[in-house]
Specification:
This protein is of the alpha/beta class. It folds into three domains: 308 residues, ABC transporter type 1, transmembrane domain (ABC transporter transmembrane region fold); 151 residues, P-loop containing nucleotide triphosphate hydrolases (Rossmann fold), CATH 3.40.50; 70 residues, P-loop containing nucleotide triphosphate hydrolases (Rossmann fold, 3-Layer(aba) Sandwich). Helices cover 60% and strands 10% of the residues. It has a six-stranded mixed sheet, sandwiched between helices. It is elongated, with a radius of gyration of 34 Å.
């Protein structure tokens, strides 16, 4: 870890004013250190030489004021530094969340949810020590030794030379120890992230582990990872304690060397008593900030390591924009209306990292407004990947996608997604009321529209039987609802959103035959003006007014047979020849 990482300030420029105040207070504290040493030397020398009580009282009062000033400067510096840390943490968390959303589900699917959660919470909280203690001490480690050296040089140049020669020993030892600490801290962080991710997986899959008799085994795994994390933490602490010992020893030997030569010259009468006191009082102050910065370095490594991981994520290019300036890559505000514009896929190929077989292989098709498409195929054939491309969750390796006359990449993502309603295989319901979950894509929708969407999805009947109806609060994961009920709420959410393109991924998987038939009837009647792409293994009932049924096999698109060709004026989907 570098002593100072400027990226922390670049990602939170509003914190610079607080850090400037912190640095200013640190410099003020440096001046007060020199003033304190001078007053104390005068006070002690005067008392030894029998100076009048009035003069000593004045020096004592001045010393009290200086001590109060140092305390105020130290307290104010820590307060402003903590404020800077809060701003940096808040800014990093916002940027981390926003960039993760831009990277999309494809990137998130390859990450450990526990690591990202730990990073955004406890990991970045470690920046408090970095800003409140390490950075201010880093400023003092530069300012105080230099100021002390200059002041001692004016009083006694011999002592200044000795201090100048011994001061570099402490940074050298600190760097050597820091190289070892870096590896220890990175291992500690990796184990903490692994522990967080594994614990999250165990909690989420506890029912499955319990049924298959693996709960105790996973508890042993958590115990093992916890033990490794404890051992890594203790190893890091041992390094910190040993480094403090080494730095203290180096500073003590250097101070003793100055004290010996000052004492010898004082005995021989070559050095005044007040000057000797001033040198002896200032010498430890020259080494103290360097020792402290070494100790605070260890206290701040966890937060700085977490910040480095956050920067790695922030530096991850969005698919399709690698090496492109973000400002130049921002799409122009192009308006596209999918109620009137066709969507064209031309030779689209999608390859996921780490896989040789393409998820989509040279797929070409045209989707006209109002089309009804059923997409079938085996598991892993590429059906969900086709929806992921349309949702812009991932970028194809080759080929092009356009809407009307505009390439998809030229359309702002928010404008594009505003025209799409999507029901995934495993819909996510959030903590809140059922009404809020249905209105997720249409904030502020009136209750009558929410209830109408519930009726279209076949959810209105069971919702009204709940104690609070649409105001029933769902807990995390909506476990109080069955899989089919959760599916119906998700369908109601998609139906409420006034989006011309409706993407349904296995919408009948958790529905009984009657509910599945009702869904298909709803798509062909009340939602007849929308373009629908429906993924399924098999339909529960007739396919209704579907323009064409398509089959995906190993990423390749084809029609199931010649009779599945579109008929009538709504036939808008055409596989490429």
């Amino acid at each position: 870890m570098r002593p100072f990482d400027p990226r922390l300030l670049r990602h939170a420029s509003t914190a610079r004013s607080y850090l400037a105040v912190t640095i200013g207070l640190g410099l003020a504290g440096t001046g007060l250190i020199l003033l304190q040493a001078g007053l104390l030397a005068r006070l002690l020398a005067g008392a030894a030489l029998g100076t009048g009580l009035a003069v000593l009282a004045a020096s004592l009062a001045g010393l009290a004021v200086v001590l109060a000033g140092r305390a105020a400067a130290a307290a104010g510096g820590e307060v402003t530094a903590l404020r800077a840390a809060a701003i940096v943490k808040s800014g990093l968390r916002r940027q981390l969340t926003a960039h993760a959303l831009r990277l999309g589900p494809g990137w998130l699917g390859g990450q450990q949810a526990g690591e990202i959660t730990t990073l955004a919470t406890k990991g970045l909280d470690g920046l408090d020590a970095y800003f409140a203690r390490y950075l201010p001490q880093l400023v003092l480690a530069v300012a105080v030794p230099l100021a002390v050296l200059v002041r001692v040089a004016f009083a006694d140049w011999i002592s200044a030379v000795i201090i100048a020669l011994t001061l570099p020993l402490i940074p050298v030892f600190a760097v050597l120890i820091g190289l070892h600490t870096k590896a220890q801290t990175q291992r500690q962080w990796q184990l903490l992230a692994r522990l967080g991710g594994h614990f999250l997986d165990v909690v989420a899959g506890l029912p499955t582990l319990k049924v298959f008799g693996r709960a105790k085994a996973q508890a042993e795994v958590i115990k093992e990872v916890t033990g490794e994390h404890r051992a890594a933490t203790m190893a890091t602490l041992r390094v910190a304690f040993l480094s403090a010992l080494v730095l203290e020893l180096a500073a003590a030997l250097a101070t003793a060397l100055v004290a010996v030569e000052v004492g010898l010259r004082l005995l021989t009468g070559h050095l005044g008593y007040q000057t000797a006191l001033l040198v002896l009082l200032l010498t430890p102050e020259a080494y103290l900030p360097l020792r402290n910065v070494g100790a605070q370095f260890h206290a701040s490594t966890e937060g700085a390591t977490a910040a480095q991981r956050a920067f790695e994520i922030l530096d991850t290019p969005v698919a399709g924009q690698a090496g492109i300036d973000p400002a130049a890559a921002r799409p122009a505000p192009v308006a596209v209306d999918l109620r009137n514009e066709e969507i064209r896929l031309a030779a689209v190929t999608l390859v996921y990292p780490g896989r040789e077989q393409p998820a989509l292989d040279n797929v070409s098709l045209t989707i006209a407004p109002g089309d009804r498409i059923v997409l079938t195929g085996r598991s892993g054939a590429g059906k969900s990947s086709l929806l992921a491309v349309l949702l812009r969750f991932t970028e194809p390796a080759s080929g092009s996608i356009s809407a009307g006359r505009q390439a998809l990449g030229e359309i702002a993502a928010d404008r594009w997604l505003r025209q799409i309603a999507w029901v995934p295989q495993h819909p996510q319901l959030f903590t809140g009321t059922i009404a809020d979950n249905i209105a997720l894509g249409q904030p502020g929708a009136p209750r009558r529209q929410i209830a109408a969407a519930g009726r279209l999805a076949g959810a209105d009947e069971f919702i009204r039987q709940l104690p609070d109806g649409y105001d029933t609060v769902l807990a995390e994961g909506a476990r109080s609802l069955s899989a089919g009920q959760r599916q119906k709420v998700a369908l109601a959410r998609a139906f409420l959103r006034d989006a011309p393109l409706l993407l349904l991924d296995e919408p009948t998987a958790h529905l009984d035959p009657a509910s599945a038939a009702q869904l298909l009837a709803t798509l062909d009647t009340e939602l007849a003006d929308r373009t629908v792409i429906l993924i399924t293994h098999r339909l529960a009932g007739p396919a209704g007014r579907t323009s064409r049924s398509l089959v995906l096999d190993r990423g390749r698109l084809s029609s199931p047979d010649s009779t599945a060709a579109a008929s009538g004026p709504r036939a808008g989907l055409a596989a490429a020849p």
